[in-house]
C-alpha cells in the first residue's frame, strides 16, 4: 500500500488559526515531522502511537538538513505511512514546501498541500494593520529578509522594491533590518514612510512597534525585538494606532498562572485568554473520588430520606450523582437542595436539579444564613462535601437541631508540578488561587509564586490560608466565584497599566 505525505501549514502561532483540515490530519497521521514555529499544543491531538519527530532548523543545533528531510518524507511515504509534514504559517510561503513537494513528485510519492494562515498577513492583522487598503495599498509583496542586502549578487531587486506601489512585508528580516531599511531608502523609498515590526504575532505576547522607515531599525534595537518577527513598510502601518486590537485587550502581556485542578481549570483559562492573557496551567491539586463504601454508601442508600441536601462544590454535586449508580435525579425528589454558589448550582442543573437555595455570598457562613428560615429541627440533612472542608456548615445545622450526615465524596490531593509548569509559574505576572487547598498544596510542594507576580485570591478564606503561610495576597475578589476573581484581576491589571 502506498502512503501519502501532507505538506501542512499550522498557521502563525495562535492555535485557533490552525485550519480544520490541519487538525483532522494531525489526528489521523502515522508520523508527524514538525518545525519549531508551530503553535503551542499543535501536536496534542496526535494519535498516542504516532511517531513525532522534530526536523526544524535552529541556528547552531544539529537537526536534519533539507535534503535529509526530503529523503525522510520519501522513505516514510514509500513505507506506506500517512505522513504530516507540519510547518509554521503556510508551507509554500518561505517554508521550503515547494522543494519537499518536488522531491516527493520526483520519487512518485503521493502528496497533498494544505495551505495555512501565513505570518505576513496574520501578524499584521493581529496588530490592526491590513496589508492592503482601498485608499493606501493596492498591492502587497512578500520578501525574504534573510539575505544580506549589502552582498553583491543578491537575488532581490532592491530598486524595484523601492518603487513597488504597495506594502512590503519582510519575513526573517530582524537581523538584517538596519541594512534593509538603508538599502530601501538608498534606492529611493521615502524615509518617512510608516513601518512596523510585529514580534511574536498572534501570540499572547505579541508586540508591535511603529515608526518610520528611517527610524524603525533603531527602535527595534532599543527595544530588544527578537525573532520571529514580521517587518512591514507601507502607509497601512499607521492604522495600528486606530485599529490595533489585540494589544489593547485588558490582560494583554500578562502571564496568569491557574492553580486549580486541571479538570476545573479550562473555564477560567479560556476566559483569561479571551481577555488577552497568556495562561499557564499549574494545577496544584487533583480531585480523587472516594470509593462508595462506609458512610458514603450508607448515605447513598437512604438518600430519599433526607429533607435537605447541601452541596458545597461542583465536584461534590457531580460525584454524588456518580455515586447514585443506577439511580438518577428522582432519588433527590423529596429533598430541598442548597448549593454554595452558582458553579455548584450549574453542576446540579446539568443533572436535572434546580437548587432551592443559593446564597448571595459563596462561603459556608452565607449558606448557613440563607437557610435561616428553613425548619431544621429533627430533619435529616446530608452535607455532600470535600474531605478536608471546614466544619462550619454541619456544625451550624446541628446546632439548629438537624440530624446531619456529613459525608466526604472526594479527597483533594497534591499534584506536583513538572519542570515545564514550574518554568511557566516563574514567568507569571499573576498567580490565581481559587481555594485554600490550591494555596496549601502548592506551597507544601515547595513551590512559591515568583516575587514579581501579583497573588490573586478568590475570597477571605483562601486569603487567610495564604497569609498564614506567609504569602501576601495582592488582590482579593469581592464576589467569591470565578467571575468575581476575573473581575478583580482585570481591574488590578487595568489600574496598574501605565497610561499610554
Ligand atoms: N511559512 C511561514 C514562514 C516561515 S519563515 C509562514 O507562512 O508564516 C519564518 C519567518 O516567518 C520568521 O522569521 C518571521 O519573519 C515569520 N514569522 C513566523 N511566525 C511568526 C509570528 N508568529 N510572528 C511574526 N513573524 C512570524
Structural description of this entry:
This protein is of the alpha/beta class and 500 residues long. It contains 18 helices and 20 strands. The structure holds S-adenosyl-L-homocysteine. S-adenosyl-L-homocysteine binds at residues 12-13, 37, 87-90, 93-95, 118-119, 123, 171-172, 198, 200-203, 227-230.
Query: What average pLDDT do the residues reach?
Result: 93
Strand proportion: 15-25%
Question: What radius of gyration results from the CA coordinates?
Answer: 29 Å
End-to-end separation in angstroms reads 62 Å
Number of strands: 20
Largest sheet: 5 strands, parallel
Write a brief structural summary.
The chain has 500 residues and is of the alpha/beta class. The chain has 18 helices and 20 strands. α2 packs across α3, α13 packs parallel to α14 (392-399) and α16 runs parallel beside α17.
Features:
single chain; 500 residues; alpha/beta; five-stranded parallel beta sheet; five-stranded mixed beta sheet; 18 helices; 20 strands; elongated; binds S-adenosyl-L-homocysteine
List the helices and strands and how they pair.
Blueprint: E1 4-9, H1 20-28, E2 31-34, E3 51-54, H2 66-78, E4 82-87, H3 97-107, E5 111-114, H4 119-126, E6 140-144, H5 158-163, E7 167-171, H6 177-186, E8 194-199, E9 207-212, H7 216-222, E10 229-233, H8 239-243, E11 255-258, H9 262-274, E12 278-281, E13 285-289, H10 294-301, E14 308-311, H11 314-323, E15 336-339, H12 342-350, H13 364-370, E16 380-386, H14 392-399, E17 403-414, H15 419-426, E18 430-433, H16 436-444, E19 454-457, H17 460-468, E20 475-476, H18 482-496
Parallel strand pairs: 1-4, 1-5, 2-3, 2-4, 6-7, 11-12, 11-18, 14-15, 14-16, 16-17, 18-19, 19-20
Antiparallel strand pairs: 7-10, 8-9, 8-10, 13-17
This protein binds S-adenosyl-L-homocysteine (SAH).
